[in-house]
Amino acid sequence: MYDAPVRIAALEMVAGGASLSEVARATGVHRSTLRAWREADSVLPVECFRCIFLHPARADAYSALLGYYLGDGCVSTFRSHTTLRVSCDATLLGIIADVSRVVGALHPSGGVFHVAAPGVVVVSTNWKHWPCLFPQHGPGRKHDRPIVLEDWQRDVVIAHPADFLRGLFHSDGCRTNNWATRMVGGEKRRYDYPRWQFTNHSDDVSALCCWALDLIDVPWRRSRRWVVSVSRREAVARLDELIGPKT
Description:
Mean pLDDT: 87
Number of strands: 8
Helix content: 40-55%
Low-confidence stretches: 42-47
Structural class: alpha+beta
Shape: elongated
Order of helices and strands: HHHHHEEHEEHHHEEHEEH
Largest sheet: 4 strands, antiparallel
Oligomer: single chain
């Protein structure tokens, strides 16, 4: 009778603390139906309907947040709270705003909190379904365990590769100026050029970055084991266009 977006919106309101009567008035769904959904939602397996059905309007936000999570994020559980945290450079206000925006797009009824630490702002939010949306979570550091995307996650990234790369490069990447020398007419000349670099000690995460760059036809190379570089002039310009400045 009700499609998935209505159910998702209703359950998010319930999870955010709204009463069944308030949700019924806002969505038009009968209280008895909301009660049944709430009870079913409390016993959903790890692969809940949010994983199986990701609303197209939120897929680009999810793709970006997946990149941020793989770069500088974590999911942790303490007592009854499950928390997603993404660490951001405190000086990069645009990235802090971007992470907050995509988190809010995926969980609009949940609060987004900023926790300040020396040189860092941690964007965090509580939701019991973060482990469903990020099945790569687990104890320890990401580079100490396999990081493999589920098929549905790969489908989202294939549909929105630029958003995924924005999350990766804006968390664990940088845009720098490099230089090289070349002999021209017997004279050594210096050439300066920009490049993007992504650095991550997880071979799996680095491989996902390379795969996504291939999806948008941006050439890359491994300048070191854990560093993926985009250095060609046209490739840097293309990446600039797709992911924007790191600010």
